[in-house]
Structures are given as C-alpha cells and as structure tokens.
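S1.2 Input.
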Amino acid sequence: MATMYEMIMDLPLFKGVSKELVSSFLEKTNINFVNFSPGDKIVSKGEEVRMVKFVISGEVRVKHVLKGCNIVVEEICSSGRVLGADRLYGMDTGYSCDVEASAKTSIMEFRKDQYVRLINSDHIYLLNFFNYLSRRAQRPVEALENFTSGDLKSRLDILLSVLTDPDSVSILIRASVADLARYGATSEDRVEAWIRESQMAGLVDYSAEGLKIVSRAAFL
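S1.3 Output.
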C-alpha cells in the first residue's frame, strides 16, 4: 500500500518533488483530509474556488451540463485528479462543473494562498503548475483544429477534448437520440444510424443512460 508521501509525490502538481520537499510541505501547510461517501457533493458549479483539492483515493463523478439542451457530459476520475487549480485566478474563479463522490473518496485540500507560497518555494512546483495550465489551455486549440465538419461526431469530439480528462476512468454522455439530433443539427434517423455504426466499431455503447464512450483515445 502506498504511503502518504508516495501518494502526494504521484499527484500531477507534485511530480518530481523530493520526499524532503513533501515533508516540508506537510509541516508548513494547513492540510485538510476530507472523506466522502458515494453521492456526496464535493463541489458545485459556480462555487468560488478557495481551495486546491486532490483526489487521494476513491473515485469522483465530474458533471458538465450543457446550457440550453438536455445533454450532460459525465466522467469518472480516480486518484490524482485535481479540482480547482485552473480556476484559482482569472476572470472566472468559480468551479466549472459539479463534482460528487462515486465511491468512498478521500480529498486532500489546502487554501490557494498556501499553494501560491508553495509554488514560490521551489521551481519544480512552479513548472508543474505551468505544465498543468498549459496542457489545459492547449486542448481547445487542438479540438478546433480537428473540427473538420459540423457533423455529430465532430461536435462530440470537441466536447470530449475540452471537457474531459485523458486519464478518466469512464465517460458517459447523458442524452437521448432526440437530444443528440438537436445538438448535431441532424435527424434522429441519422443519429441512430451513427450509433449503430459506432457500436459495431467498438467506440460507444448506447443504453437508456446515454452514450458511453468505450475509449476516449480511440473515439478521438
């Protein structure tokens, strides 16, 4: 079983940090460890980001609700997922999604002013933060560069590229055939045909819950 030091050192914003630096971080930072049961709300969309949160164990369900339609993009993420780091500063400092525990989950959190002091304490923390922000900033550009047509598949590609994490355990797009048809500006018959073809290709599974993405990488 991984020790607390090993779990922290494996987090994306702590990659490459020595055990000594982690020890110093634990000594100088007021850290909270909060446990959640399945279904418990962890953060709400629009809530101001005051803490940097890390999933230490368990799994969380991240929900992105599309405005003006009945489509919800849900992803299940496991240990290592960071919540709120990209919304600490800027024009919008509210969470962009709802997050709830999908299993027994432990969250490590600390205040953003403590995180600012941390990234100023060693260049490794700063580089990790820059890499994290840069990768997320590059996603929309890459998604638009690959938007070569206005069909449903291209539109879903953008949703997955921008809203979901490459390390997600699973992704579900909650939507009916009618919802997908409206979103893709096409007919329900064409959506049903596309779903059949995509299922045969092993890219998606469709059920009453919605469209389950079998593999994010393969779909994109």
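S1.4 Remarks. The two ends are 34 Å apart (CA to CA).
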